[in-house]
ABC transporter ATP-binding protein (Phreatobacter stygius), 247 residues
Amino acid sequence: MVLLEVADLTVDYGRVRALSGVSLTVRDGEVATVLGANGAGKSTLLRAMIGTAKPTTGSLRFAGTDITRLPTHGRLAQGIVLVPEGRRILISLTIEDNLRLGAHLRRDGVAVRREIEMIYERFPNLAERRSMLASCLSGGEQQMLAIGRALLAKPRLMMLDEPSLGLSPLFVERLFDLLAELNRDGLTILLVEQNTGKALAAADSATVLELGRVLMAGDPRQLAADPALQAAYLGAAKPAPNALTPS
């Protein structure tokens, strides 16, 4: 079943066109990834999905419902959650208060308390310092807190914007293990990620943006084997020109 459908989406910032005719689908239960260089439009696409960037043209449907004009809080209530680039936790609040922010639309306090304890079981480093200010956390721990906060919104679709940015290799491994675990538990994930190799290995479908347009889309394994994608994003050397060919 298609959970999210983006159709012919265009987003303008004044006279600057950030997205032009972008279409993609995310199926229920899959991991989808969106790749591209800086300025390709990846973050704008996520902002359009969460409702903080207004489309000029095009439409968005979630679980069969048109959400193109739905405000952000309405999309959150539908089960769409964004873990933003840079994590955006509130370092002046405690770890637990940051978690509780994720449940601000919920009224089932007993269930929220139970789920917070489950998050602490998943992230023992957070549990040990639940009453401390979030400023005490490392970058990797802050990312885990941001994901825990998002989980408390009970998402059907979790979108993550560059979640591995600035993390140590150890935390990058832990992050992708966590995303695989959440997906096995049934969570649909849309991942915008700078680590192209990791993203393609984790994903069931992939879309590559370039200058606000879809450059290529399809099976991640096929895209990973594409010479142009390898040269642009995976660090593969471009084929050397034939020495017998005149320049």
Remarks:
- The CA atoms of residues 200 and 222 lie 10 Å apart.
- The two ends are 51 Å apart (CA to CA).
- The chain is about 35% helix and 25% strand.
